[in-house]
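hey m, so remember when u said the tokens were messed up on ur end? i reran from scratch. heres the input so u can diff it against urs
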Amino acid sequence: MFLEAPVFSSGGYSANSVAVADVNGDGKLDLLVANFCTATPCGGDGTVGVLLGNGDGTFQPAVTYDSGGQNAVSIAVADVNSDGKPDAVVTDNCVTSTCDAGAVGVLLGNGDGTFQAAVNYTSGGLSPSSVVVGDVNGDGKPDLLVGNIYMGNGNYSRGSVGLLLGNGDGTFLGPVSFDSGGEYAYGVAVGDINGDGKLDLFVANFCADSTCASGGVAVFLGKGDGSFQPVVTYGSGGLDSYSVAVGDVNEDGKPDLLVANYYSADGNYYSNGTVGVLLGNGDGTFQAAVSYGSGGSGPVSLAVGDVNGDGKPDLLVANQCSNRNNSNSCTGLLTVLLGSGDGKFQAAVSYASGGASPSSIVLADINGDEKPDVLISNQCARLDGDCAGNISVLLGKGDGSFPAAINYGSGGQTPYSVAVADVNGDGKPDVVVANQCASSDCTNGTVGVLFGKGNSTFGRVVSYESGGYQASWVAVADVSGDGRPDLLVANQCASSNNCANGTIGVLLQNADGSFQTAVSYPSGGYYAYSLGVSDVNGDGKPDLVVANQCATNSSCANGIVGVLLGNGDGTFQPALAFSSGGKFAFSVAIADVNGDGKPDLLIANEYASTANQSTGTVAVLLGNGDGTFQPAVTYGSGGQYFYTVAIADVNGDGRPDLLLANQCAIGGCTGGTLGVLLGNGDGTFQPAVISSIPQASGGQQLAIADFDGNGTLDVASGAGNFLLLGNGDGTFQPALILGADGPGIAVGDFNLDGKPDLAVGGVTILLNISSATTRTPTTTTLSSSPNPSIVDQTVNFVATVVAQNGGSPSGTVTFKDGANTIGTASVVTCNCASRGTATLPLSTLGAGTHTITAVYGGDVTFTGSTSSAITQTVLPKTATTTTLNSSLNPSYVGQSVTFTAAVSPSGASGTVTFYDGTTILGTGSLNSSGQVTFSTSTFAAGPHSITASYNGNTNFAASSSTALTQTVNKFSTSTALTLSPNTTAFGQPVTITAGVTSSAGVPAGTVTFYDGATALGTGSVNSSGQATLSTSSLTAGSHSITASYAGNSNFASSTSAALTQTVNKANTTTAISTQSPNPSVAGQPVAVNFTVTPVAPGSGTPTGNVSVSDGLGDACTATPAAGGCSLVFATAGAKTVKASYAGDGNFNASTSAGVTHNVTDFSISASPTSQTIKAGQKTNYKLTLTPLNGFGGTISLSCTGLPSGSTCSFASASITLSGSSSTSSAVTVQTSKSTAKGTYNLTFTGIYGSGSASTGGLTHSANVMLTVQ
């Protein structure tokens, strides 16, 4: 169907490697493929698929063999047992399911294309990734060298090489393992690079060292005995090296190294890959790598050969994706870099690989034409979970090109939408691509324009900023009226920092074919995904219709359709918003689906609603012809995660049908569905008929055309990588692989051969190579009815297409008014009376005469033709005047008001629509007097601008009345207030009741109560018209209380008269609760606890101070909240203690009853108070201790102030007191002869307890005088 590489099943799942050899001795090259496992889900055993060649570039179905281990990864072919028959050597990830070692399986060939069972050897490491065969010890027997990603034995950072020396009989010694010279060995190759006749070894290591700053290629010079000199490592010219090849690319006779690097060396993991070229010096050393872009993302394998016949080596690279950042399009890619013969290479030319994730590439002449062909193993057939491996065969033309789909850059990253149009007016289709991002930093979207050359090739892409962030859709139309197509882009967000709304970028074309900077317009919603262009209000100016995922980023109950009416000069009016009828609107299509000549909208909603996410819905919004649309009518999409709607007549009945692409079937997501809703021609549709399709995630486009030239429409999808051939009755044949992927897809004739070609993703060109047919001439005739017609009257233009020699033409008829296209319609192909006709109903022709022609575009079988012109006369309508009056103005809320509209002149019929501003109140039909009435009692209070709009009919023009201001008043209210009780103590609740009354009933709403200007609280008006508030927060004093009713939509507000609420201070009681200790000693702190309690009905918490006193000068003060203070009594005695609360602003003062507190003490005296003695004599004093107020306890005695050399002694050093009786003790003072003469003051001290009053102790002293002579 399309020009692309033929593919052949690899016989297993995930084809990882391919090798070429004549394994059955018929002189024709055969293919051997290492498949990761048998099928999905992967059971573990790897397989070898053998495809015997037919010698013409085709192959017989694969015959599979067990690879001998788990998960086959790499394959090589050589005669390892010297019997002249090719044998297969396969690396497997694991020997067994325990995966404690990698495996090498040897399958000896029988010479007839069959192989013996695999014999297994360990690989010398873990996860072997590649194998090469060569005689490295010079014994003439093939040896095996295996690249292992991991060394093993706990070392998972370094790679290893396992060397298995051959015995020459197909068996091998156990592996000798050595470090690969870097991290993670992925590729191995051998060759003699220093000209000593001994094989050397080259290893592509993912990382050169532990920093992983670059990929590495390790060079091991061979000693010829199976051992190697110490490794020398070179930078690979990029990051993450996967494979290495040997060739003399500068033709100096010295082997060079070529390395495939997954990423470029700049550290950008969103970059495309590179090929590093290390030119050899001939002595085993190499020059620094020179890097060339691989032309794609993720190069994993390369081959060297002369593919254009100029005698200079070229490079061919298998890239896993066309673009690293293209998450929606990962087409496998073959890139060809033609060599200059001096070690340099031209820029890569890209071809689709025929599958997904290519893993290896081989050059060989498989069809015997002496031109190199390319064979690529693709791990998967496509990216929808179908990971059956395949082998693609690209037969070389000998000039460096291959018969396969060509890839071009899209001018950005993550291409999302494709359009085809002749944007520069040269008659050759061009391709326009919307890219979500300009580059890896993704600050804005871009539009890429590829100008077509008319021979299926395109010039270099020219990029423009899209006017927003994450460009998701592109359309091409002349919106400025200058005859030059402009670009319209739907951007999901305004910028990377502003996603409050989507935007539409408008890029007007300049006279030189370039485009102006995008002017952005809000899309009318959040996340703009898709747009369409059509004249939806019949003014002859293109308008824009946008599918927005949500209304805003916080309101996503339903999608939003934004309609931007065009001004005809490239500018647009603000978006009008319409509900999409479902959740998450993703796609919009525009067509006249009910035959009234007015464009209608079809919207793809991912879900029916938030509550119902089991199915998608397609919403039909029928157009009113004035830029507005009727409410959405929805239909089930026939699947889940519905993203795309397209319109075409797929059953040939002349009525538009809907095609709906769903990511999943209802109830399961193993595959997608295409729902076909056949149209009834009146804007309604039949239930979805389901066809199974491969799963495709996210938004996508559908391309609809007759690709196989059989006269019926077919459907292609890049996102799903499928082609559905139509049966002509609305059903389709099973899906075929398309051969390219990406969400964007568009139809165009890129080589001008009359066949529909495809531009897919970002961007793959698929040329249609279906068989050509000789087309039969046709004639087209045109008729119209009625003619003449009146303005706004629907005229049916019918084109009849007749083939010269019979048959049933299909395709599209374009109707023109002079040079302007007024619409298109499909030719009916059903076996029915209208077969061969295309009907365009049109009601937008203006008054006057119109020259109408019908142009049939032809199809694959029939040529196009143009009808003779007919003159359509359109008569103007009779002008009318509409007047309006009100039955009651002003009115009150809820009152019925009747509006009467009168339309003149007499004879006018039809309907009148009554409006309140822009809101439709209702519609009624004119009576025989030309009048119509409308009554309503639903007006809210306020002014209303009422108009009556006569909608006209076939003969009378529409007209609108002058606006009438209808004043609607609220009903008055009064509010009265009561207080209960009217006088309160502080803290006593008062109930405030407001009664709200009105003559129109009981008002509803809220009342706010005020104390002066301070709001006390609110209450709701109950069914009795009362609202209450109870409060105890009023302070002592006089308060002016009011109640304010707020009113509602029907009742006016009102405020009560003020009432005075008197609040007296609350009485209190004060009491002493405890004293501790009691009794106490003089000077000892006593904790006196008290309470101050409000007296009912008062309540609350008193503040201020409480004074505790014995009335004798001993006092302490504290707050009521403290609840006590510390009181110190200076003297002994029975004290009467009272607590006195001083009161505050809200509470009166009070004093507690007196409580008794006993304070004890003792006194001490000495006699005589003065004595005279001579030195060396002694004398006696008498100490008397007396208890005070019942003191009891033991007192310790001491003396101080004695002359030097003197002593004192007590008859009793401690005295115990009790009761009220005094007790005496004699004290003797003894001087010495050395006592100095003089008068001395002696102090006798008695100590009770600690001696400190703060802890309940006492200390008292008595002083006497002693004179020594």
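this time it looks ok to me. Residues 486 and 553 are 30 Å apart (CA to CA). if urs says something different then somethings off w ur setup not the seq
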